[in-house]
Design goal:
This protein is an alpha+beta fold. Helix content is about 30%, strand content about 15%. The strands form 2 sheets. It has a 5-stranded mixed beta sheet, with helices on one face.
Length: about 230
């Protein structure tokens, strides 16, 4: 006989201990594995004087705590499955956010319909061209060498890419271009407004939190992590 479990008994495990609501964009601290809403955790760390976990007070990192948090897709999927209508309500709030600012919601932008009978061939063609994120929301950015770095400048500073691209992927791109080896990406730092960016940040997150009220393109700097 199956035993039914009430949702309220699971609430402590699927709720953010900062806002007390259900987890949205669940983000986990690597060091202690406590999970919070991404916006709640980022705001806490930006305002916290000691860069500590809001739950256990463990010091995440003395100077760059945002590099030690990670999106927890599995936890977020669990929350959406357990809580009725949560995902739909969150989508409605996102639409309202963009509407209030007279902006189109990226998830509502129509895409060209493809015929099912030639879908496979078109997907194969896209795969061959390595154009995996053509239909994503795009971000225009200017990628420049930091003034205090001895790395060479990119031949093409202006780049257009998926808003879902992460800082780690950007580091790999720079490493390939200026260090002649993608495996050297750990030797690269990416900054915005002279602030070191976390490796798991997406460009959309960086744009919304660091560049929302500035004119495009998003301006980022790169530098080497190895100093003479």
């Amino acid at each position: 006989m199956e035993k039914k479990i009430k949702l309220k008994t699971l609430n402590p495990f699927i709720s953010c201990k900062i806002c007390r609501g259900y987890l949205i964009d669940a983000t986990t601290i690597v060091e202690c594995l406590h999970t919070f809403c991404k916006s709640c955790l980022v705001k806490h760390l930006e305002e916290s004087p000691n860069n500590a976990c809001p739950d256990c007070n463990l010091i995440i990192h003395q100077s760059h705590p945002l590099q030690y948090i990670s999106h927890d897709r599995t936890m977020q999927d669990i929350v959406y499955k357990l809580v009725p209508n949560l995902q739909d309500n969150e989508m409605n709030r996102e639409r309202a956010f963009y509407k209030a600012r007279n902006l189109p919601c990226p998830k509502d932008i129509p895409q060209d319909n493809k015929e099912s009978d030639d879908m496979e061939s078109k997907l194969n063609e896209a795969h061959q061209e390595s154009d995996y994120h053509r239909m994503d929301e795009q971000v225009n950015l200017c990628l420049e060498c930091s003034s205090n770095s001895n790395l060479k400048n990119l031949k093409r500073r202006f780049i257009r890419c998926s808003s879902q691209a992460t800082i780690t992927q950007l580091k790999k791109f720079v490493a390939k271009k200026v260090l002649n080896g993608i495996e050297k990406y750990r030797e690269i730092d990416i900054l915005c407004n002279d602030e070191l960016l976390g490796k798991d940040h997406t460009l959309k997150f960086v744009y919304v939190t660091r560049w929302r009220f500035k004119d495009p393109p998003l301006r980022l700097q790169y530098r080497t992590t190895i100093f003479d």
